Amino acid sequence: MFASLMSACLVVVSLGKVQAHDVLKTPENCIKAAVVLPLLGGPGDSPIIPVKVNGLDAAMYVSPMFGHVMVHDSGKLWFPLGADMPLKAQNGAVTLTSRTLLDDVQIGPMDLGEMRANLLDGQAERHVGSRPLIGMLGLESEIFSGTDILFDVPNGKLAFLKFRTDKACKDAAHRLMGAQANVVELRRGALIAVRANARSQEMVLDPDLSETVLPTSWGDGLNLTSDDIRHEPIVTTQYVGVSVGHQYVLNVLDIGGYNPGPLNVLFQSDISTAALGGDVFRKAAVLLDRDAGQAFFLPETENTPRPTLHFHFDESRLGHTTVTQKTGRIETGVK
Questions:
Q1: What is the distance between the alpha carbons of residues 2 and 11, in angstroms, rounded to a whole number?
Q2: pLDDT attached to residue 90
Q3: Fewest beta carbons less than 10 Å away: which of 158, 275, 294, 312?
Q4: Strand (E) positions, 232-327?
Q5: Does the pLDDT at position 254 exceed 50?
Q6: Which domains does the chain have, with CATH numbers?
Q7: Who contacts 65 (Cβ-Cβ below 8 Å, separation ≥6)?
Q8: Residue 3 has what pLDDT?
Q9: How many CB atoms are closer than 10 A to CB 216?
């Protein structure tokens, strides 16, 4: 996937004085801007990219599920404390953040300038190499409106794209991804429709999650009773508080004609919307063409040597268990 995209990027930066009508005949010439970044984690991690914040090197998670930019203080990198602002986690629990302002944010060659954010409690605890992992770049936030995103987790890359809107480029995303890609409608809030056991269901795209999660209400559509679900292995997950789920092997999930194969999904009773997790993003390059309202899934095989660090912003797996209790510990994953 990224071989063709890198070719596109070379064309974009070398246009010079070439006239527009001369360069709109191929899909690469329909990309007016592209920034390609390495993913700093391994295939089992959330997407993590290098950034520069207030002049200092850092790393941040990225996900289309989140509508806010959220940061921790980290050593010399600290942020002013503003008014309180509550945010909701994956399982509906609420945590308190503070409004803050990042003086300058750079992503590769993109200088985004000032950026409003939410300051999370405590210091950043994790590092990727020498870079502190300071928080989440929510791709649903206003700063990224009008920008398309290509996740190529199998090859360890992420790209921010802007397609030309000329008539000749109306199918540029289709041509970039190729005939083997499957397409589904992409709605606001990173929602797509899938089919499970011939029933249409909504899912949100969240590569921050290590596995796909389903509300227990999906059980009926999969011909599972509540007793069937309760007899599956118990898995506890830390969001804000602890969520107790049951692991289940979902053999068929139709994403616009693409079936990622058997998935170890989690049924969780305290979520209302299903989320397509990193287990699917590890099997395909996923392009979110937000202007056109389309999501593309191109099957790929894993091709990155980086080890998995088990880094996720909004969850930490507490493991398989038969007994669980609330720990009282507040995690920082909020949406």
A1: 14
A2: 63
A3: 294
A4: 234-239, 241-250, 263-268, 274-276, 284-289, 294-299, 316-320
A5: yes
A6: 180-320 (2.40.70.10)
A7: 138, 140, 190, 204, 205, 206, 208, 275, 335
A8: 54
A9: 17
